């Protein structure tokens, strides 16, 4: 019985490792072809296009660069790049709220919102030439609200890990629930491990419930 349990535990640990959510992010370029300032970018996540909201100022040029990232649930924001900041929770909540306002704005409003997101984590951007009254207004609104963590439970944070293209400048992205990224299909090896785990569990339960006579 003990041996069966140890085998089952090992299989389930391997299965969990194989199902770890790591994605490949590629920067497709600014949302507006004429815009070269840090702002709203188009990205692909495992090949699926989405509008990205960086919370880190992208290095330029960034178009065409690619990196891997770990998907972190919003409630685990402490694992993200700015998670150790004393006001990390308030900043991530304010950033998520700003992103939720983006579909209701014009293209110019989208840029102001992105600038406000960046300013939450890098206040120095407020002194850059790209800062304007629209961004300042959005930042003030976001910082003046009261939030609950559960409001943003469907958000994900893509924490960059390693470069795929040489000398890339990876950024952390916040992905809204409607960010356009489809659920991943588990790899065949992962499904095989998961199936073995279920079979082992079923066999153990069967012996316990229906012992041989």
Walk me through this protein's architecture:
The chain is α+β, with helices and mostly antiparallel strands and 213 residues long. It has one domain (21-191). It contains five helices and six strands. It has helices at residues 2-18, 88-101, 107-121, 133-144, 188-209, and strands at residues 22-30, 41-45, 48-54, 66-73, 156-163, 173-175. It has a six-stranded antiparallel beta barrel with strand order 1-2-3-6-5-4. It is globular. 31% of the residues are buried.
Summarize this structure as a short list of keywords or feature phrases.
6-stranded antiparallel barrel, alpha+beta, disordered N terminus, 213 residues, 5 helices
Strand neighbour order, sheet with most strands: 1-2-3-6-5-4
Shape estimate? globular
Give the beta-strand count. Answer: 6
* Quaternary status: single chain
- Number of DSSP helical runs: 5
Beta-strand proportion: 15-25%
State the distance separating the first and last CA atoms: 17 Å
Average residue-wise pLDDT: 77
Content-based structural category: alpha+beta
What count of domains describes the coordinates? 1
The biggest beta sheet is recorded as: 6 strands, antiparallel, barrel
Task: Give the H and E element order.
Answer: HEEEEHHHEEH
Helix residue percentage: 25-40%
Radius of gyration: 22 Å
Name the poorly predicted regions: 1-20, 33-38, 180-191
